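In this section we walk through a basic example: taking a raw amino acid sequence and producing a predicted 3D structure, encoded as discrete structure tokens. The instruction is simple. Fold the sequence below.
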Amino acid sequence: MTHVVTEACIRCKYTDCVDVCPVDCFKEGPNFLTIDPEECIDCAVCIPECPVSAIYAEEDLPKDQIHMTAINAELALLPNWKTITKRKDPLPDAEEWKDKTGKLPELKR
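The resulting token sequence is shown next.
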């Protein structure tokens, strides 16, 4: 099992989770963070750090977010998605997007 970043992160990209990750399993894209399932050790320390509750253990994913397991794995393999190990500022319009749902069409690969 692994942990999964859900659609709630899209267009927000808060990076509080990155600071607590002991294995550097987060990858950064243009407007989303993903968890590399090959690197994640299921420690769960990232879950309470996310200000938009975007991270779940795979077995606890809401039914409407199950597709994000495959998306996290796919994005983690993209060469332009680099490991992120230090907190950065969220996207400039994160506050406007943090409570929106159905953000998958906004995902930039």
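Looking at the output, two observations stand out. Residues 1 and 58 are 6 Å apart (CA to CA). The helical segments are 16-20, 67-76, 94-97. In the next section we compare this with other chains.
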